[in-house]
Amino acid sequence: MEDESPNVTTPLLRRQWWHRRLSNLPLTTSLRLKTTVWSELGGSVGDLGTYIPIVLALTLVSHLDLGTTLIFTALYNITTGLLFGTPMPVQPMKSIAAVAVSEVPHLTVPQIAAGGISTASVALLLGVTGLMSSLYRFIPLPVVRGVQLSQGLSFAFSAIKYVRYNQDFASGKSGTPRSWLGLDGLIVAIVSILFLVLSTGAGDSFDDNHSHSSEEPSSPSNRSGRRVRRRLQILSAIPSALIVFLLGLLLCFLRDPSIIKDLQFGPSKIHLVKITWEDWKIGFLRAAIPQIPLTILNSVIAVCKLSADLFPDREVSATAVSVSVGAMNLVGCWFGAMPVCHGAGGLAGQYRFGGRSGASVVFLGIGKLVLGLVFGNSFVRILGQFPIGILGVLLLFAGIELAMASRDMNTKEESFVMLVSAAVSLTGSSAALGFGCGILLFLLLKLRQMESSGNCKIMGVPLLVRHLLVLAFLLLFFIASTTSFSEFEDSDEPTSTCKYERSAEVERECSFVLSLASKSKLGDEKIYEIESKLPFWNGDWVQEAGGAPLMPFDDSDMPKNFSGVGSHLKLVSFWVMGFGFSHQFDNAVSVCGLLSIGITRNKTLSDMAESWTPWFDTGPGYSNMYIPFEGLYVESDENGGERLMCLLGTSVFPFSEGLSDTLELLNDYSCEQDHQSTLPKDDRIMLVLRYPQTFTLTSRAVLGEMRSLNERSDPKYFDKVHISSQLGHGSTYSFVSNLLVSKACDPYPYQDELIDDGIQIFKGFQFCKVFQRFTSDIFDVSWISKCHGTKCNSDLRPFMLGREIEETDGILDNFRLVMKDLHCVPGVNLNDFSTAKVAVVFRAFSPLEDHYTSQARSGLSGMTISAEGIWNSSSGQLCMVGCVGLEAGSSECNSRICLYLPVTFTITQRSILIGTISSIKKTDP
Fold first, then answer.
1. CA-to-CA distance for 425 and 206, rounded, in angstroms?
2. What is the pLDDT of residue 50?
3. CA dist 435 → 426, 430, 440, 473, 646 (Å)
4. Longest dimension (CA), the chain
5. Among residues 29, 222, 302, 920, which is most buried (max CB within 10 A)?
6. The predicted structure's pLDDT at residue 766
7. What is the rounded CA–CA span in Å between residue 676 and residue 292?
8. Which is it for strands 568-580 and 173-177: parallel, antiparallel or unpaired?
9. Residue 289 and residue 120: Cα distance in Å, rounded?
10. What is the 3-state secondary structure of 198-221?
């Protein structure tokens, strides 16, 4: 009988063939957990510190649909997690987002999509041709480490600002210092940092398979060491980042419980984005060109290097990552999804908090998919209340983890190249500049090393080539140091714009406003909440006739024989620049702002000036004055609750007594900034602005008064200026005018006999989404009025025309309407009919006024009707009551507006929206 081999083991049951096949599939190994489920869940939220702020900014500023972005990024997360088997992040393309949010004019959704598709095409081309792999192999490691170090430190700097200051992601600016107390205070952020440090330490992992000491198991020191390791293992197993993130979600609802009412269930409607040739040009030049170097360096090369460091057993190829970036955007951007890439910062953040396999990003993708399908774009209301300090904490740990990847530089030469590359990247705000300087410096040091070692190969390098390398390095370094260093410095102190050097003078001149202040104390958290409600754009202003104009106007752009006044507009905009809590009273805080006031020929005012200095700019057809102000903000109980600002400003005096000719004067003030600094200043200007605390039909007007504090005999004196605008989208509209609506629409529907029997009208669901499409559209109007020559009996009622009727020589047929500032809330009544509450502003404009300009104006003159009403699917009629102009009393709300959306089109019925504006009073003409 033969001896059986002791090394051969016969299994009792053979594994099924499908089990063996599945265990070897890449997708199966990608989801194989390398740690606990809780650890992977904690790692899944590690990159949200960079994801949420950018997505929120693009949603608010560029109107990117959040629901669409959540769905597509969820699919990207799930796919990359299954394919790569590592926590490969899906991050926004940061350079495109920065251009879209910060530069003016802001990029539109088609332009953002064009930039993402262009960048993706380059990444895909480099991937499929193998050029990306060649770049990855030949780029020196110290240069890559420099890029990683700069990105990590940049994230850390941004994180500290998130923690220290309130943030306005819509404008991309830091606000006032964060308070210690509150649901988004410093204490919440500091406690979160301590919790993460105590639970995760410096990011080290602890394993049961540590080599034990040579001491006996019963040794007291060995038992103590095991207890310490066990305690650290328990702490590291806590999904700390997930707990902190869930705490942030809870605080969202505690900060503003009303967001629950604003949530709408159901996914966003996904549709193809129409990209014009102009969109392609703007998207490529403004968005893609600065993004392409960042995508190559940070999204591909740096990600591959970091992945090789963190996961040496599962190395990711540069070709696969490059193709992945290209494929994601070539699919999603066509549907309006945010342009995305893979980021080294996101990978570091997910690894830092426990992500060790593809399951981490798969979990994240499932969460995004659920949110996108359930809440759609309405989820932006929750993100808008997410504590920014907690986002800063998550971003801080991700940035530090990414920066620590550069600790493997072993020689002084490697460290030198890395640090120079990182410094240039940071100060130049460009990874491409740092990369270029790092490559040139690396080559110079290698040539020097070869020359000093007597290597004969150096003789083959011409002296001219070495000199050119030196010059190229100096040129790149100079560009990085001079072009963007000041921007880097300025961003470190966001509140340095306002000096508050006139506090005593403000308190003296604004004592009448302080006397109106309520007794309730103003905290910084409350101020931050209302900061976005104070700016306004392109309001109206008029000046009292006293012979002292505010500024000159050059009308040389009009023909000499032109008899009319032309369509010149007097517009005004105001921006809040910051609050000064170090100078606050018990019931008032210091505030500073910038006023832009001007006269234009049928165009809107320019955007906010970058300089915090008085400025006067003029030319044929426009005059524009920038006035910086500082003063006090208070809240009053008068007039149903008001917000008031009293400010003192300094302007450039726009008139010169030594210049008699107006054109000579205007040319003199059109000179460069060096000349403007020598012009006389007028610091005796007072501005008082009044805002209603509640936003309703009759309480929406922002009213202001600017006057000179100089004596009338002073050449700098000007007549009083009256300002009007209205609350914007930063304020929440309240539908509380039921009595006024019933005055016009009870019984509902109002019988206006406008619709013929054969015409069907819209009575379906989602009225608000359908009606939203008509905002900013231009409507033809048939006016019914009695005119005799150039004199009209009715001023185009209900509108109250003044100068506009003179400009058109009494011709009323060409006046048109634009609809803007829509607020629409859907609902269901007791009879299960779909309903909607609607508020909107109608503006009439003359044929001499550009409709885009009219759409941008915010003044509430006699050319506007503010309306509120109801829509019901039982009749399909939108019935509203209308209030003309600035009159706050309900007695002036005497107009009835009835609108319909026809769905039947015939030879005689071609309109997509029809309606009437009539008088509620039977005695009105």
1. 35
2. 83
3. 11, 9, 9, 11, 50
4. 130
5. 302
6. 84
7. 40
8. unpaired
9. 12
10. HHHCCCCCCCCCCCCCCCCCCCHH
Count the helix, strand and coil residues of the chain and give each as a percent rounded to the nearest 5.
45, 20, 40
Query: b/e per residue, 609-634, with b = 16+ CB within 10 A?
Result: beeeebbbbbeebbbbbbbbbbbbbb
CA-nearest of 369, 419, 400, 340 to 95 is 340
Closest among 620, 670, 687, 627 to 652, alpha carbons compared: 627
Confidence (pLDDT) at 491: 39
Query: What is the rounded distance in angstroms from the CA atom of residue 917 to the CA atom of residue 860?
Result: 18
Contacts of 148 (CB under 8 A, 6+ apart): 302, 305, 306, 344, 402, 403, 405, 406
pLDDT of residue 155: 87
Distance of alpha carbon 818 from alpha carbon 895, whole angstroms: 17
In the block, which residue shows the tokens 């300090």? Answer: 389
Contact 148, 405 (CB under 8 A): yes
Q: Which residue has the tokens 């803007």?
A: 820
- Cα–Cα dist 275/280, whole Å: 7
Residue 733 DSSP symbol: B
Distance CA 240, CA 197 (A): 9
pLDDT for res 677: 55
For residue 633, the cross-strand partners are 589, 645
Please give the distance of CA 239 from its chain centroid, rounded to a whole number: 30
Tokens standing for residue 525: 């958290």
C-alpha distances (whole Å) from 876 to each of 7, 762, 872 are 85, 6, 6
> Which runs of E-coded beta strand occur in 254-370?
340-341
- Rounded to the nearest 5°, which phi and psi values hold at 914? -130, 160
- Sheet of 816-828: strands edge to edge? 778-780, 816-828, 834-845, 864-872, 878-884, 895-900, 914-919
The pLDDT score that the predictor gives to residue 94 is 87
Q: Which amino acid is at 615?
A: W
Before 749, cis peptide (omega within 30)?
yes
Region of 88 (left: φ > 0; alpha: ψ -120 to 50; beta: rest) is beta
Look at residue 94 and give its three-state secondary structure.
Answer: helix
86: closest CA among 241, 328, 316?
Answer: 316
Rounded distance, CA 249 to CA 255, Å? 10
Cα–Cα distance list, 614 to 598, 617, 824 (Å): 14, 10, 40
Three-state secondary structure call for residue 753: coil
Residue type at 423? A
Query: For each successive 10 residues of the chain (925 residues), what is the average pLDDT?
Result: 44 42 47 74 88 84 86 94 91 87 74 94 94 87 87 88 79 71 88 88 55 50 66 70 90 84 84 90 88 87 90 89 95 94 89 88 94 89 86 89 84 89 78 80 81 58 61 59 40 52 90 87 69 88 92 75 62 88 72 92 72 80 90 90 94 66 48 56 94 92 95 93 89 88 89 77 88 84 60 63 54 78 86 87 85 84 92 92 72 86 84 89 62
What is the β-pairing status of strands 701-708 and 622-636?
unpaired
> Quick one: pLDDT at residue 656?
56
The whole-number pLDDT of residue 217 equals 53
The radius of gyration of the chain from alpha carbons, rounded to an integer in Å, stands at 33
For residue 497, how many C-alpha atoms fall within 13 Å in the half-sphere facing its CB? 24
What does the pLDDT read at residue 904?
Answer: 85
Residues 796 and 844: beta-carbon distance below 8 Å:
yes
